Amino acid sequence: MGEHILTTVDWARAQFALTAMYHWIFVPLTLGLSFLVAFFESIYVKTGNEEWKKLTRFWMTLFGINFAIGVATGIILEFQFGTNWSNYSWMVGDIFGAPLAIEGIFAFFLEATFFAVMFFGWHRVSKGFHLFSTWMVAVGSNLSAVWILVANGWMQFPTGMAFNPDKARFEMQNFWEVALSPVAVHKFTHATSSAFLLASLFVVGISALFLLQERHQKMAKRSMVVAAVFGFIASVFVGFTGDEAAFSVAQRQPMKLAAMEGLYVGQEKAPIVAMGIINSSKKPGDDLPAFYAEKKIPGLLSLLANRDPNSFVPGINDLAFGNAERNIIGAEQRMVTGKIALAELAHYKYAKETGDAAQAAAALALFEQHKGDLGYGYLNNPTEAVPPVPTTFYSFHIMVVLGTLFPLIFLLVLYFAFKGTLEYQRWLNLACFFSIFLGYVAQQAGWVVAEVGRQPWAIQGLLPVGVASTNIAASNVQTTFCMFLALFTALLLAEIRIMIKQIKIGPEA
Amino acid sequence: MTALPKQLYLFYRDGFRSMVVGRTLWQIIAIKLFILFAVLKLFFFPNYLEHNFNTERDRAGHVLENLTRTPSAR
To answer: Domain locations in chain A?
Structure first.
């Protein structure tokens, strides 16, 4: 019975997930649509054709609506850090505080200047300066996503820092190691390219709706061609960066990769599950089959993880309990080291409080030797190091399947556009319209893989979520969770209403 | 020299005046910011460490206490 009661940590995680997922409805469209608007306006400036200007202003209006509704939703995450995640917040403050503040200031000035020119300056500044401002908004919006993704990357792969036991803080030792960590680079490139893809789906989908309604057909076809080209290029880049990100996960978060593929027992020539139904009763270490049914492609996971189709990929059991034959240290063994690190940290604290310098030095030396597995010291059972497998598996596969579907849609759009029969392809236009929603599903699924797949860690291997959170009553978080749910629903409904109204008006406004 | 600030002022003033959809959006932004900062931040999201501890040393001590106390992962 007690196992089913949601704790403060569960509510805090649910609240953070709700806010982050809501925030991520707006961000990718802003990032991608800003570039599409810049492309449209560039064509207008190059050709001087007023139709392109009308088209640019229409998409710019939708961009503005999305931006306005989404703006400041990210700030709520910051509130939650201070209240629900105070231990975590304190520990990483030295690493993220200044860069995130700089990002906020940068974004403010960008928005106050170039956004204003973009929306107010059509008849007040030269064509060239207006176009420059539009490009600056696109570049600046995307740059302002850098630091939050670097921060997320650091949580998945903490590097370039040292733990200071006197301040209970991670302190930055090497700025460039943090900023240019492979995980951070993959996060940024994958997240932004997927944002370009989503925005392309949005433009293609809304334009397809116009074709279905036999309205604004010329404008719709022009928009679709530009967005389909951009979307197809983005899709290829998403595939490439996704592959690199998965390779990085295999090297640095092998447990996440094993959960993504439901791989319990490590193997050579490890397959990727093309389709599968997870056995939800399966637990690490038992003999139950991992899937009720599955279709596998041999060797592909080994190729993805190690760039060698014959190589060994560790499974959940290997990583939880260890595999001496393969020289894999499991969570079980790391727990022993982690508990030593924790005990020595406690000794160090006590020795400092009692003024015993020799004892403090000895405890610190032992802590330094074992601190790499600090987070494992909080685990009571090695299976606690395993993330929720079904959620991670299904999210990953939904993302990949949809990511494979989208470039085909863009290619079909381009094929029929160049044949001159796009407006007659009712089935394709319907598919394009519904792909907008599938695009959002893929976006959210991607973040579920990244965040659920790294559980139980707030900071990989060093700090589990249960220790990162604040000791406050669950009811506090429940109240604000419900308030956010109401606020977000109201805002989302407002956006959809304004968007629909504007789409109904079309580019004639 | 005085022309530039005036031009900037007129640029923003005329821009805001000529807004159509923007008016509704600004209203939504204003309501949202009010709810976020005047309600949620003020009454529901105090910074736990700043609210309960006076010095950086006390805050560090509290976090270290939490780190060395609980063997609970989730």
So the answer is: 2-257+383-508, 259-321, 337-382
